[in-house]
Amino acid sequence: MTVVVTAIFHPVEGKKQQLIAAMRRGIEAVHEEKGCELYAIHDAEDGTVTMIEKWTTAEDLAVHADGDAVKILNADIEQYLASPVVVTKMTALPMGSESAGAL
Q: For residue 35, how many other CB atoms are within 10 A of its CB?
C-alpha cells in the first residue's frame, strides 16, 4: 500500500526563496530513489513550504528517510529553517472514484 507524507518547512523570516532554492539538489536526488511517486513542494498561504510525498511502499519510505538524498536536503536547508520540519505519514482511506478518491 502506498504511503503519503507531508513535510512542513518553516522558513526563517525573509528567507523563503533561499530555502526553496536550497531544496533543489535534495529534491532532484530524491526523485531518483526507488518508490518515489511524488515529491513536490508547494508555497502554502501560511508562509510555509509544504512538501507532499507519495511512496510505493513503507519500506521505500524507510530507505528514503535514512538515505543520502535526505542528508543532502537537510544539510542544504538547515540555515533557512526557523523551526524543525514537521513530518506526517498517512495512509489513504479511498472513497468515491478510484482516480479521485486517493492520492
A: 17
Note whether 74 and 18 are within 8 A (CB). Answer: no
- Beta carbons within 8 Å of 8's beta carbon, 6+ residues apart: 44, 48, 49, 50, 51, 85, 86, 87
For the entire predicted model, the pTM comes to 0.93
98 band by pLDDT with thresholds 50, 70 and 90? confident
* E strand segments, the chain: 3-9, 36-43, 49-55, 86-90
CA-to-CA distance for 28 and 31, rounded, in angstroms? 5
Element (H, E) at 72: helix 68-77
pLDDT more than 70, % of the chain? 100
- Report the C-alpha gap between 19 and 89 in whole angstroms: 22
| Residue 42 · residue 97 · CB < 8 Å | no
DSSP state of 11: B
